[in-house]
Design goal:
Layout (H helix, E strand, L loop, with lengths): L1 E5 L5 H14 L11 H11 L7 E6 L2 E10 L9 E8 L8 H15 L4 E7 L3 H9 L3 E12 L2 E11 L2
Parallel strand pairs: 4-5
Antiparallel strand pairs: 1-2, 2-3, 3-4, 5-7, 6-7
Amino acid sequence: MLKIRQATLDDLTEIDSIYNHYIRHSAATFDLKPWPSEKRQAWFKHIKSSPRNEVLVAVHHEQVVAFAFNSPYNLKAAYANSTEITIYKSPACQLKGVGKILFRYLFEALEKHQFHRAYSLITLPNPESVKLHQNFDFKHIGTLTESGLKFAQYHDVAILEKALN
């Protein structure tokens, strides 16, 4: 059975395992070097320093199979009611619908935190992620063309937006 809950410090190794896979094998993230545990711990502490930020994990058979979080869209004060969301699923996870379930919990929390807009940046092509976001009423509002260089290739990034409150 799949369980969605708040992430804890004990989950960070599994979160790192998922994220570092995408660093090594995908342009889904523009990080180029795997994160050491110290960096993940600092990230977690920083994200959780705001009561408006969530870090959620999907757990199946006591193993983290996906995680999602929100963070400030921009640090300038006028953006305070906008947030950026991120989701990653373990490539080993064969469960269908994990992203949808995780997103339901995340957006429920974002509504409670009274965010006005949620944004997501998706490296293209990534039809699975784009479809997941569109299923939650995200709209494509722009594309950053050739904005990141990874694996000796430039990549476009879609900017998606969701109206919340």
